Amino acid sequence: MSDALSPPATAVIADPWQALRAHTPARIALGRSGVSLPTAEQLAFGSAHALARDAVLRPLDVPALEAALRAEGFATLSVHSAAADRATYLLRPDLGRRLAEASRAALANAGVAAGDLLPVVGDGLSSLAVARHALPLLRALRERLPAGWTLGPVIVAQQARVALGDDIGELLRAPLVAVLIGERPGLSSPDSLGVYLTAAPRRGRSDAERNCISNIRPEGLAYGRAAHKLCWLAQAARRGGTGVRLKDMSDAPALDADGRPDRRAP
Fold first, then answer.
1. N or C: which end of the chain has fewer CB within 10 A?
2. Which residues, other chains included, contact 249 with Cβ-Cβ below 8 Å and sequence gap of 6+?
3. Distance in angstroms (rounded) separating the CA atoms of residues 38 and 42
4. How far apart are CA 74 and CA 66, in angstroms?
5. Is residue 177 part of a domain?
6. Range of the domain at 77
7. What is the pLDDT along the chain (266 residues), one digit of tens a residue?
């Protein structure tokens, strides 16, 4: 066989940015084979896409989550949005933003106090994120809660959108509600958890009136760091509310009255 017809030593042409892959899980520097992606990268993409779909469609195991929370000393209550099932939830986002009437009545008659900060854990678009990260984050939050503050019961919500926390918080007269919810899966992170903090929650609040902490997972924002940010934002929200008026300065050094770093600040 002539050299002109011999196959190349490798069919994959490496990407010159290959070294950058050591610093990010993003799909960069994949190389190419002819005019296409290498087979290994095509298969990896298909696998990541399947994991993302599974994260969206997988139901949250509420009894297991509540049992784990109670074993750690958290009081729990479970509710359901007005979206009766997953298909309805995906097609009708508006129904995921309000409580089912049965859950509204049960919550109204529960006789529980919301505390200074009411945590709502919702499945959102990744029940996998909630199953893996909600409890470790709540544990870290409890350890860092400001002195004198109390957490309300953990409200576990099925078929939940972020704004469901407004309905729940208004019903329980919570001064602050923190919605821990599974974020829309990406192709490198099917289990990313987000937290949305809203002051004086009530039905009709907009996303501009919330503060978001995103990508909470071991490969992203660590539990302790996320809990620190949430506590900082919650304390600041008491002075001026949440949303576009509240900038996250939790990583900036706090200053005392003389302009020096305040070691006592969170």
1. N
2. 232, 236
3. 6
4. 9
5. yes
6. 60-240
7. 455 555 455 567 777 777 777 777 777 777 777 778 787 778 877 877 788 787 888 899 999 999 999 999 999 999 999 999 999 999 999 999 999 999 999 999 998 999 999 999 999 999 999 999 999 999 999 999 999 999 999 999 999 999 999 999 999 999 999 999 999 987 778 889 999 999 999 999 999 999 999 999 998 999 999 999 999 999 999 888 999 989 998 887 664 544 454 544 44
Say which DSSP state 207 is in: G
- Residue 73 domain flag: yes
| φ, ψ dihedrals at 139, nearest 5° | -65, -45
Is this prediction's pTM over 0.90? no
Question: Nearest-CA neighbor of 245 among 196, 208, 212, 206?
Answer: 208
Give me the number of domains the chain comprises.
1
Cβ contacts of 239 within 8 Å, gap of 6 or more: none
Please report which helix (H) or strand (E) contains residue 62, including its range. helix 62-71
Backbone dihedral angles phi then psi of residue 89, each to the nearest 5 degrees: -60, -45
Which contiguous run of DSSP H or E holds residue 155?
strand 154-158
β-bridge mates for residue 81, sequence order: 99
For residue 105, being part of any structural domain is answered with yes
Residue 209 maps to a domain: yes
